[in-house]
Amino acid sequence: MTLFIDSLWRAAAYCLHIRVIVYSLLPLALMVAIAFGAGWFFWEPAMDAVADTLGSWDLVTVAHEWLSGVGLSGLKAVLPPLIVLLVATPVIVVLSLLAVATLMTPAMVRLVAARRFDTLEKRHGGSFLYSVVGGLGATVLALLAIIVSMPFWLIPPLVLLVPPLIWGWLTYRVMSYDVLADHASREERRELVRRHKPFLLAIGVITGYLGAAPSIVWASGVMFIVAAPVLIPVAIWIYTLVFAFSALWFSHYALSALQVLRAEQTLVLRAEPLEPPDQGTLPPLLPPL
Asked: Which residues in the chain show pLDDT less than 70?
């Protein structure tokens, strides 16, 4: 728990570092370009498809007639963009996480290692290819979990619990590998994950809940659609900073845990007694008579 709290405040302090802020601009620029490019080509077709689908459902038609009867006919126009944003949000979250993991996490690890763990040996137990493949595999599983759990989001308590837990698990899977890829051997990484899995998962879940903050911005973007060109980059930047904070938190925690693990291994090696030499192989003290 001491390591958990120590790495938390250090990660929060590092978020104010000018290099971290500058590093966050690259994934931000990439994600804003992707978001606006996708919106340019797919926004209107997506809106039309959602509107046509809703119009074919008798229950939705009855609900629209009831809203018109009580003077809330304007909500009919709000529903299609709301649904499109709800569907697009998981994709934006996942892409933001992958962009940060690819473009920022190595720089975050180097920053933390240079300032706190400059003597920690790099044993290169991970690879970029495995990081990409493992990250994509975990992403597919997270998106499938999101799709399967969407019907349960209609239950108020679950909508506040399920998505952050899924994002937290995905963040834990991606970050716990990436931050140790250079410094830890494969055996060390597996041992650290085995020992510290509850705390590593807790870091992922907490940052997953922090990642729910941009949902307020998305809601504002639906209600004030004119301000969407400003609100969407703000929301994406929040995602980027949250995942950057996550990378820093994982880096401080995992590298500190790795340092402790190696110190323990050194003590064990020093404490092991030397094996006595095999008496059968010693030369005789006196020549034979």
From this structure: 54-79, 82, 86, 153-154, 156, 159, 212-231, 271-289
Residue 119 lies in a domain: yes
Looking at residue 227, its amino acid is A
Where do the DSSP E strands lie in the chain?
Answer: none
Determine, yes or no, domain membership for 13. Answer: yes
Read off the pTM. Answer: 0.74
For residue 271, give the DSSP letter.
H
Structure tokens at 158: 């679950």
The answer to whether the Cα torsion of 221, 207, 15, 92 is positive or negative is negative
Q: State pLDDT tens for residues 43-56.
A: 778 777 777 776 66
188-222 residues labelled b (16+ CB within 10 A) or e (exposed): bbebbbeebeebbbebbbbbbbbbbebbebbeebb
Residues 6+ apart with CB under 8 A from 22: none
Look up the domain containing 262 and give its range.
2-43+89-270
Q: What is the pLDDT of residue 73?
A: 52
Whether 279 maps to a domain, the answer reads: no
pLDDT at 286: 46
- Over the range 36-52, which residues count as b (16 or more CB within 10 Å of their CB) and which as e? eeebeeeeeebeeebbe
Nearest to 135 by CA among 108, 100, 88: 100
Domain assignment present for residue 164? The answer is yes
Domain count, the chain: 1
In whole angstroms, give the CA distance from residue 200 to residue 214: 23
Query: Which residues, 6+ apart, have CB-to-CB distance to 193 below 8 Å?
Result: 176, 200
CA dihedral 222, 226, 230, 231 (to 10 degrees): -10
What's the pLDDT at 107? 84
- For residues 250 and 245, give the distance between their C-alpha atoms in angstroms, rounded to a whole number: 9
Give the separation between CA 94 and CA 146, rounded to whole angstroms.
11
